[in-house]
Amino acid sequence: MNIGITCYPVAGGSGIVATELGQQLATRGHQVHFISYALPFRLDKFQPNLYFHGVETTAYPLFQHPPYTLSLAAKMAEVICQFNLEILHVHYAIPHATSAFLAKQLVTCEVPKVITTLHGTDITLVGSDPSYYDITRFSINASDGITAVSAYLAEETRRTFKIEKAIAVIHNFFDGARFNPDSMTCKRRDFADDKEFVVAHISNFRPVKRIIDVIDIFDRINKALPSKLLLIGEGPDAILARRQVGKKNLNDRVIFLGNQDRVEAILPAADLFLLPSEEESFGLAALEALACGVPVIGSSGTGLTEVIEDGEEARRLSDEKFNAHKIVNQYEDFYRKVLNG
Ligand code: GMT
Question: Are both 192 and 316 inside the same structural domain?
Answer without folding.
Answer: yes
